[in-house]
Amino acid sequence: DAKTTQPTSMDCAEGRAANLPCNHSTISGNEYVYWYRQIHSQGPQYIIHGLKNNETNEMASLIITEDRKSSTLILPHATLRDTAVYYCIVRVANNNAGNMLTFGGGTRLMVKP
Amino acid sequence: NAGVTQTPKFQVLKTGQSMTLQCAQDMNHNSMYWYRQDPGMGLRLIYYSASEGTTDKGEVPNGYNVSRLNKREFSLRLESAAPSQTSVYFCASSEEGFVKKLFFGSGTQLSVL
Predict the structure, then answer these.
(1) What is the C-alpha separation between A89 and A51, in angstroms, rounded?
(2) CB contact under 8 A, B100 and A45
(3) Other beta carbons less than 10 A from residue B19's beta carbon
(4) Please, which pLDDT band fits residue A11 given cuts at 50, 70 and 90?
(5) Number of neighbours of residue A30 by Cβ within 10 angstroms
(6) Given B45, B90, B99, which is nearest A100 (Cβ)?
(7) Which chain A residues touch B97 with a CB distance below 8 Å?
(8) What is the pLDDT of residues B4-30, one digit of tens each?
């Protein structure tokens, strides 16, 4: 499985876009990129996932480089409620329940007023 | 829909005591998972269940047992609690398929003295 590298922490001003990078230089062709976040004391929450193309949903946008070796999660207008730990996870795509997601250290995003 | 419900939210045990953490989901998901999260760390998979009647070990199964009572419920039992099992426990469920979109409960904070 591809290993991911994320900055330990980041700050963002409220109302500005938060851009969270993730490096996954050893990613293989059949691996998805997932983003989850964990707000203090709560269970992780799914944000978005992608394979090759950029993706957007109501929560965020995911930009994957053409070589797929890195990606960026974009929160377009960060609010104080977006303060959380953000996990970037890479995992092979198969229909196997044991193909579990591994949550590493993540990036601690602090949104400041 | 309530999603994934865990009980209790908090528990204090003495070393050697036993207890069962309960988890139920109302999303008709086949797969269910138990993770633990130690302070300042990512999540580690304890056990998972791909479907009713099946369970498998994850990354850190020692000291735990699980039961998939039916499609909705997946319980985690500590037979003889140890201080090393002090942690926050999260239950999760997911749909079948190639994409691992996990839905998490709010967690059980367990302290073993």
Answers:
(1) 12
(2) no
(3) 15
(4) very high
(5) 11
(6) B45
(7) 95
(8) 999 999 999 999 999 999 999 999 999
